Amino acid sequence: MPVSLTSVLWVAAGGALGSVARYLVSAWAVLQFGLAFPWGTLAVNVIGSAAIGVLGGIGLSGDLRLFLITGVLGGFTTFSAFSLETGVLWQRSPWLSVTYVAASLTLGLAAFALCYWLARR
Q1: pTM for this entry
Q2: What mean pLDDT is reported for the chain?
Q3: Is 52 exposed, middle or buried (0-12, 13-18, 19+ CB in 10 A)?
Q4: Exposed, middle or buried: residue 11 (CB in 10 Å: 0-12, 13-18, 19+)?
Q5: In angstroms, rounded to a whole number, what is the distance separating the alpha carbons of residues 60 and 67?
Q6: 18 assigned ligand-binding residue
Q7: Labelling 45: which of 6, 55, 56, 81 has CA 20 to 30 A away?
Q8: 3-class DSSP state of 3
Q9: Rounded to whole angstroms, how far apart are CA atoms 86 and 74?
Q10: Rg value, the chain, Cα
C-alpha cells in the first residue's frame, strides 16, 4: 500500500475522532459503573469489533477505508483490527488464526508483564 500525505491525513483525522470517542465511552462507563471493572474498554472492544465486521464485510477501499477502519476504528480500539485479521486468517487457515490469537495474547501479556516489572523497579 503506497503511503502519501493524503493517506496519512485521512488516518490522522479518523484517529483523532476515534480516540475522542474512546475517551468519551470510557469516561461515561466510569461515571455509570465505577472503576471496579474496565467496562469502557470492554465496550469499545466489542463496539469496534462489530463496526469493523460491518465495514470489512462491505469491502471498503481507498480513502474511506483509511479514514474509517485504520483511522476511526484504529483510534477507537486496535482490538477491532485484531478481530478483522483473526477472521480473515480463519477463512484461509483456522490453525494459523488460532496461532495468531495465542501468540498475540501470550506475547502481548508477557511483554506487558516484563515491561511493567522493569518500569516499577
Answers
A1: 0.79
A2: 93
A3: buried
A4: buried
A5: 10
A6: no
A7: 6
A8: coil
A9: 16
A10: 16
Distance from C-alpha of 73 to C-alpha of 105, rounded to nearest angstrom: 20
71 carries a ligand binding annotation: no
Q: Where residue 81 falls among pLDDT bands split at 50, 70, 90?
A: confident
**Residue 73 in contact with residue 80, Cβ under 8 Å?**
yes
Rounded to whole angstroms, what are the CA distances from 25 to 52, 67, 99?
17, 20, 31
- Using an 8 Å Cβ cutoff, are 6 and 63 in contact? yes
pLDDT tens track for 27-55: 999 999 999 988 998 999 999 999 999 99
What grid cell was written down for 10? 485521512
CA 103/CA 111 separation, integer angstroms: 11
Residue 1 has pLDDT above 80, yes or no: no
